[in-house]
Design brief:
By secondary structure, this protein is of the alpha/beta class. The chain has 14 helices and nine strands. The strands form two sheets. The protein has a five-stranded parallel sheet. Strands 4-5-3-6 form a four-stranded antiparallel sheet. Strand 4 and strand 5 (162-168) form a beta hairpin. The mean pLDDT is 96.
Length: 311
């Protein structure tokens, strides 16, 4: 079986995340303990909350990396095959690097905690906004963004009929109004900052310095990058694409199509929630998508003996 690994980004967190896997799997428990050592207090925040503290960007990002890495470790411990390709939605790209062995868990936790802080501090609260535009084609949303001016840009192309816009609050509101006039829907997102737009340039600059000082190893399998929807060329290119991702568009629809070129049999989302499994179903009709969030879903995602593995 040829498996694609998917790792979620912000918005998938939940109090209690990874607890059941950590209790059942020594490999997952080890990941959580190592993550907690790198970011003291992270385990308690993941398992017990409170939710408002877990939702803070600088806490949410390392929590999601830890949960994704723990679920992947449990998968491998249970005999799940190594993926032929991986991708992570925004923040999840760091988790993909951990799974592929190109970045240590501890380094990733430290990087994303700083990343979250940089992103939170880049724009004063209330200045920016994000909104999901639904039921409109991408080219229509692109035209609405262009009409609104330089204050707003496309942040995520998540699935057909689902595009997220980000930028100055008034410009995002203008796109939302225009989308409704065109017969679409616009849903304001509860975020603390406008991610994946030029307003994040100060955060990208700060993160670039951290990434430049980070050594990436060769990945064991392909990682399709958010910014260009192409497999990472090599470890030396990782700092650039992860920096550009902070202000650039998450081209998730294209990422999935690029990963599908690897003749994927099963798509497995590792970590918390089932957001990416839902986007997969809307993007690649008939794709076999599973989410691993606890021991029961892990067992359901594992290939049986008749299906075999990719190794």
């Amino acid at each position: 079986m040829r498996v694609a690994a998917l790792f979620p980004g912000q918005g998938s967190q939940a109090v209690g995340m990874a607890r059941a896997l950590a209790e059942a799997s020594p490999a997952a428990r080890d990941v959580i303990e190592r993550a907690d050592a790198a970011a003291p207090g992270l385990r308690d925040l993941m398992f017990d909350g409170p939710a408002d503290a877990l939702t803070r960007t600088e806490n949410q990002q390392p929590a999601l990396v830890a949960a994704g890495a723990a679920a992947y470790a449990a998968w491998r411990e249970a005999g799940g095959p190594e993926p032929v390709v991986a991708a992570g939605h925004s923040l999840g790209e760091f988790t993909a690097h951990v799974a592929a062995g190109s970045l240590s868990l501890e380094t990733a936790i430290r990087l994303v905690r700083a990343r979250g802080r940089y992103m939170q501090e880049a724009v004063p609260e209330g200045v920016g906004a994000m909104a999901a535009v639904l039921k409109l084609d991408d080219d229509v949303v692109d035209a609405l963004v262009a009409e609104a001016g330089a204050g707003v840009s496309v942040a995520n192309r998540n699935a057909p009929g689902q595009v997220v816009v980000s930028g100055a609050a008034d410009a995002v509101a203008a796109v939302a109004r225009a989308a409704k006039e065109r017969g679409g829907r616009a849903v304001p997102l509860k975020v603390s900052a406008p991610f994946h737009c030029p307003l994040m340039a100060p955060a990208a600059e700060r993160l670039a310095a951290d990434l430049a000082a980070t050594t990436f190893a060769p990945a064991r399998f392909a990682i399709v990058c958010n910014v260009d929807a192409r497999p990472l060329a090599g470890p030396a290119d990782a700092p650039r694409v992860l920096t550009e991702q902070v202000t650039g568009t998450v081209r998730w629809t294209e990422v999935l199509h690029a990963a599908a070129e690897r003749n994927v049999d099963r798509w497995v989302e590792f970590g918390s929630g089932k957001v990416l499994t839902g986007l997969l179903a809307r993007t690649l009709r008939g794709a076999d998508g599973r989410a691993v969030v606890d021991p029961e879903s892990l067992a359901a995602a594992l290939p049986d003996r008749r299906e075999g593995g990719s190794e």
